[in-house]
Amino acid sequence: MSTTTTSSTTNLPHNVKPDHLSKTNIPTSELSQKTILDLLNTKCTTSLHLLKQAHAVVLKSGHFQDHYVAGTLLKSYANSPSSNLNFVSKVFYYVPRPNVFVWNVMLKSCLDHNETWKACNIAGVDKEGLQIHTHVVKLGLHGDIHIKSSAIQMYASFGLLMDARQFLDDGQECDVICWNAMIDGYLKWGDIEAAKELFNSMVEKNIGSYNAMISGLAKCGRFDDARKLFDEMSDKNEITWSSIIDGYIKGGYYKEALEVFNQMQNQEIRPRKFVLSSVLCACANFGALDQGRWIHAYLKRNSINLDAVLGTALIDMYVKCGCLDMAWEVFENMKKKEVFSWNAMIGGLAMHGRAGDAIELFFKMLRERMTPDKITFVSILSACAHAGMVDRGLEVLDNMKITFGIEPEVEHYGCVVDLLGRAGLLTEAEELISTMPMEPNAAVWGALLGACKKHGNIELSERVGKILLEMEPENSGRYALLSNIYAKEGRWDDVAEVRKLMKERGIKTNPGISTIDLNGIVHEFKMGDGSHPQVKEIYLMLEKIIDKLKMEGYSPIASQVLFDIEEEDKETALKYHSEKLAIAFGLINTNPGTTIRIVKNLRVCEDCHSATKLISKVFERDIIVRDRVRYHHFRNGKCSCNDFW
Ligand code: ZN
Ligand code: ZN
Known about the structure:
The chain is mostly helical. Helix content is 62%, strand content 4%. Helix 6 (100-112) packs parallel to helix 9, helix 13 (207-219) packs antiparallel against helix 14 (223-232) and helix 15 packs antiparallel against helix 16 (254-266).
């Protein structure tokens, strides 16, 4: 999901004129400092619009001269959900002779936004982080404990860990926040041992110390250590839970993340919005539709306002779990849509092969005066590709720059190569690759290769297959692709050559794994898997399926047997591909007519694809398979990808 923030700065009160402030700061208003602070602290936390109104009030009332008010205003900008560091710095610029509090708010918001360079610039120093120290000392802030922790944070984020550490060891007063900042710094740079040592030597630890360790360890990939500490803690707060859940999600451990989230629910800890959207992301990636639905219901039950971020996370979850209708419903009901919300919906439609709807929505977006960004154009171009709209696609590519000022990037060219290739315009596609202004990446070549395979251009396939292998010698899929090209031609010597190369280079293949969500539990299948409790039933069902399909004229695709894209393929194993097991499981355990939803980590092979098409017809089921590349909606013997994936 994209989480770009809005960046319009045009209606910022300070932007009007530099001398605007001096004209309006005559204290004519009756408003007290307290009223102003209340206004900033309560009303403005949710909306940038309200915050800007409050900002105007601050200026008019003359309270902007008050450092405490100015600092609080800065803080509100920094904490605003659609926060943008530009706002914060612009406001900061107008604060007359900022004091410690104002400085601290500014430095902290820079650090929170990972804008270390800016933080240094604001402090009036160059990138030599050391100089900020001098600055801080000059301002006489050295003894200030708050700025001390900010300084530790800043030094640490530059990787100047020794300098950061000097603040701790300088013999002056230090609080637990300074220690925590140091731990955080060590972990940010992967110095786990130093972090552990410091943590263990701390006389006084607070929840923050534990939280810093847990989130840092998880970020370093030390999930076991993080989890051990998490389990040890008797007193966890909401941040503790979020840290471990977020760590798991960022590391791709979706199953573990969802398990901890369930525990969190059992303990009746109310998750913050941020956790909910990150758990939705786990659901999306794991295909855990029931869990995702539960969160949706939870939001409704607790009347939690669907802001753009949370709403978009919901859309993304529904899209990725194959429920376009639900995604649409959420989208329609969202009060505030940002460009990334539109992108999620347009991209969802495009990915599911509903090109016409995607393009229609794009025009609606323009009518509603929403400015598309580069991600929007990736979706639109891929929609055009799937719908075979060659002229429109080329037109969009041209217009991106002329009308919207967005320079096409390699992804956009990749979509157009795909578009031309799908339409059989292989020469044009190749020409575009050789004339595009940047080096083509693997995705661009991959798009061309897909087209060559579809249109039976063996000579070009082989050439592109070799280029891809050169580009990504570590990617096992590239060997499989090239080998498959040879296998189809019956060039067994070349097949053997590719295999030998793979062996020499020690390239290992990933096992194919398919998952299916049944009543909130995600079941996982590997090829030839015998570990599932229903294994007997599943294999019986599979036999039954194959028999029925054979009556419909199905025969296993022989060329897949030799060396499949997934490398799952061995002659006897073709019918036990993970997605076939998952489909059989789905047919056994769901009511007739229920849609079966499967997530697969690799590409679906040709044999599974044609078998699934027939299953959708014979068993009258919609089957939605999300593979590594795209979505396949199987219905009544056909697939939404038009056999092109
Ligand atoms: Zn297969
Ligand atoms: Zn398909």
